[in-house]
Design brief:
Layout lengths: L1 H19 L2 H10 L2 H9 L9 E5 L4 H9 L9 E2 L5 H6 L5 E5 L3 H6 L7 E4 L4 H22 L23 H32 L2 H6 L4 H31 L8 H23 L5 H17 L12 H6 L4 H14 L4 H33 L1
Parallel strand pairs: 1-2, 1-3
Antiparallel strand pairs: 3-4
Length: about 375
């Protein structure tokens, strides 16, 4: 037993030296957990920020001025006043995303207890920003009217107060940054593990392994722990330095628990990467085969869109993918601060899926070794 563990350790160290000499792979790892995280998190925003807005003020009253002044940064650029006859041309030219049209006698009708309507024209080319922005504008206008004339609005029997425990300002960067780390873990786990096996073939070192007193299971375990260790360290540093410090995202949960979950996930995904690599003979073939697997795992795991919005049959089908359970575990721990008592069930499922992938990859690897020998 001890001799087997020492073989696994030494073979894993050999993998680390092989990875160290691969400058392209090292550059990919560094880029994936630094520049890629920061660029995607700060560039791909769904928040309403500096949106161009115009106001058609046909009332020219103190209340209409108050409404214009309430449309402030950082959500909106300073409101530009235009005429009603300029609206269509301005929006067709893409000058404004939103146009608020305040009708004549708006303030007088509010004071009289009537319910005048304010029209909001929206350019829905960017759907997320348009939908969120229209909701924000509605809330801003209602709050300003209520503040200006509190006695003119009827009290509602129910007052709903919503408080966001995590991400109190509802900034998309808090979600995007963490989920991008999750996606990059998936990508690199598949690529590194598969590349490690193919590199043995391309460099001719697989023949050396055949004459060494090592078992196939020891070879696979060495590749899994070595490549998994690199990704765990890189992901942990990324989460603490890039996500928490550089991007200012608060991580609520236990970092050691997340590292443990990541290690179990890497056992599953690296086994899957090796399994895919056993069906190929070159890096080009491996790349063509692993790409659709990565895309499906990222798009349908819940890291980009909620799993609940997918068809039920697709939700059930994706339960066989380790990424689905990893995303759910990561969100529970990092977003909601869940402890081991709440996530141990999914951790066991994730480990079980990894065991299946490992058994399949070991069987395929043994078959390929017998064929090569």
């Amino acid at each position: 037993m001890r001799a087997g563990l020492m073989k696994i350790l030494r073979l894993g160290i050999k993998e680390l030296y092989g990875l160290k000499s691969d400058a392209v792979m090292i550059a990919l790892i560094v880029y994936a957990f630094t520049v890629a995280i920061y660029a995607v998190s700060t560039g791909a925003k769904f928040d309403v920020e500096n949106a161009a807005i115009a106001v058609v003020d046909e009332d020219q009253s103190a209340l209409s001025d108050r409404l214009k002044d309430a449309l402030m940064k950082p959500m909106f650029k300073p409101a530009v006043e235009i005429g009603a006859n300029e609206v269509d041309a301005a929006m067709d030219a893409g000058r404004f995303v939103f146009v608020v049209e305040i009708p004549t006698n708006f303030e007088r009708d509010v004071i009289a207890g009537k319910h005048p309507a304010v029209q909001v024209d929206v350019d829905a080319t960017a759907m997320s920003q348009a939908g969120n922005g229209a909701s924000f504008i509605q809330a801003i206008l209602l709050n300003e009217v209520a503040a200006a004339f509190p006695d003119k609005l009827k009290a509602t029997p129910l007052n709903v107060v919503v408080r966001a425990k995590f991400n109190p300002n509802l900034e998309s960067i808090w979600f995007t940054s963490v989920m991008q780390v999750i996606n990059n873990i998936t990508i690199l786990s598949l690529i590194l593990s598969g590349a490690a096996l193919i590199r043995e073939r391309e460099h001719g070192t697989i023949e050396h392994l055949l004459v060494m007193p090592v078992k196939p299971v020891e070879i696979l375990l060495s590749k899994i722990w070595a490549n998994g260790l690199v990704i765990v360290v890189a992901a942990t540093l990324c989460l603490t330095i890039v996500v928490e410090r550089l991007l200012g995202v608060t991580v609520n949960g236990s970092l050691p628990l997340f590292v443990t979950i990541t290690a179990i996930y890497l056992f599953s995904v690296t086994s899957l990467g090796i399994l895919i690599a056993t069906f190929t003979t070159s890096m080009a073939q491996f790349g063509l085969l692993v790409m659709p697997v990565m895309i499906v795992m990222m798009l349908l795991s819940g890291s980009m869109t909620p799993s609940e919005s997918m068809p039920v049959w697709l939700q059930d089908a994706m339960l066989v993918a380790p990424s689905t359970h990893f995303v759910a575990l990561a969100q529970a721990v990092l977003y909601r601060g869940a402890g081991l008592d709440l996530v141990w069930g999914r951790m066991l499922i994730l480990f079980g899926i990894g065991g299946i992938f490992f058994a399949l990859s070991l069987a395929r690897f043994r078959a390929s070794l017998l064929k090569a020998g």
